[in-house]
Every structure is written in structure tokens, then in C-alpha cells.
Amino acid sequence: MNAWRFGFWVVLGWAACAVGPVAAEELDPSVFAEISVPGERFGLRQDNGLETALRLEDEPAATGTTKTPPSPILAGFLSALVPGSGQFIQGDRRGWVYLGLEAAGWFAYLAVHDAAQQGETDYQEYADQNWSWARYDTVGSCGTGLGPDGDPAGEREILEDDYNNNRDQFYQDIGSDKVYACGWGTQNQRADYQSMINDSDNLYNAASYVIGGIVLNHIVSGIDAAKSAAGKRKAVSHSWRWNVAPEGMAGLRVELSRSF
Length: 260
Fold this sequence. Notes:
- By secondary structure, the chain is α+β, with helices and mostly antiparallel strands.
- Residues 8-12, 14-64, 235-240, 247-252 and 254-260 have low confidence and may be disordered.
- The chain is rod-shaped and about 80 Å long.
- Helix 2 (72-81) packs antiparallel against helix 8, helix 4 (95-130) packs antiparallel against helix 8 and helix 6 (152-165) packs across helix 7.
- Among the domains are: 2-67 and 234-259, no CATH class; 132-183, no CATH class.
- It has helices spanning 2-19, 72-81, 85-88, 95-130, 133-138, 152-165, 167-176, 187-233, and strands at residues 23-24, 32-37, 40-47, 51-58, 237-244, 251-259.
- It is built from 8 helices and 6 strands, in the order αββββαααααααββ.
- The chain has a 6-stranded mixed sheet, covered by helices on one side.
């Protein structure tokens, strides 16, 4: 029996070293001796002198109950709606990255879009000042391949229709279509006008790319939040069992398990 007791306390000492400093609780030692640390439970149990079991398992921290992580669907939906929110409800500060990217994206979009609109206003005002109907009607040719081509009346009718019903198309036509080139005071003015249109169009394209980046941030944030929540809800367990039954001694089983 002394050998049994010696083995018993060897196992106890080994387990105590594995879990770190502990504090004893008042329980009936003949039934269950338990030593606990924050977030863990460690115990030795002897049943009618036939078996001794050693267990190590999670239990809520001493400060309160453990909060259940949100469902992956909820976390993913919230972050897809407002990037970072699905991370925040899990206590994950990574949500600030997604929220910051969202704010920066909208700031960039507004700045670029406003610049594109201002560029559009500028080139339209430039056209109003430097292109005239009178010049277009009176100048038959203003360079090789420039000027009315075959059907001046029909070409003018199309341009008038754009001016009255589709002003944006009108401003595009007088810059890009050679049949309307003679309405400009000089061809250098026309070249400058085309450059202004290109600059504005490039800014509009850049704004659309920024919107694409914002949408991508929503998608990535939603996927990240869902995967993080799923990982936190999934319990991963590890167990080790050791059974020793020397001749003339009661069976001894040592079991260690941990879930997180």
C-alpha cells in the first residue's frame, strides 16, 4: 500500500507542475480531491479503492462566465454590411483595420469623384468660351480632314439634337468628331479641350476603382469575421490516457484532457 500511495503522490506532483501554481478547494478527500487554477480544473478521484483518475479540463474563469462567440453567419453578415463590426462583436481589434479602410475608401472616392466633376465643369465652360456655332457654319475647312463631310445639314441637325437633349454627348462630339472641328478658334484649343476631357474621364475611372476596393473590403471583412467566429466556436480537444495495473495493486488510470 505504501508503494501505491507513493505512486499516487508522484502523479499528483507531476500534474501540479504541468498546470502551474494552484489553490486547494475544500472537498471530501475520500471521494474527490480537486485543485483549481483560473480557467482550469484539476482533480484526483478514487472510486471505492479500485480506480484513481486524474483529469484536467477547462472551466469558466473565476471572474465570470465565458461568453459564447457569435455565429459565423451573424459575424459575416455584420462585417459585410459594415466592415469591422463582425470582428468587434468578437472582441477582435482587427476590426479597426477594416473600418479604417472603409473610411479611407469613401474619403478617397468623394475626393476623386469631386475632382472628376470639377474637371467636367471646367471643360464644358472652356467649350462654351472657345467653340461657336457661327464659326462652324461659316468655316468650310480648318485643316486636312477637318470640317463638314458630305452632309453638313445632317451633321448640324445631329449636333443640335445632342445640344438640346443630350448635352454631355454634345460636349464629347465637338471635341472628338472631326466634322465639328472648325467650330474651334484654333486647333490648339481643340487639342487642349480633348486633354481636359481625358483628365476628367480618367478621374471618373479612378473613382470607379475606389468603389471596387470598397466592395472588396466588405467581402474580405465578412469572410474574415465568419471564419474567425467559426474558429472560436469550434472546440478542439486533446486527451491522453495512461493505465497502470501492477500485480497486487488497484488499477491506476491517468487522463489529461483540454478543450479550447
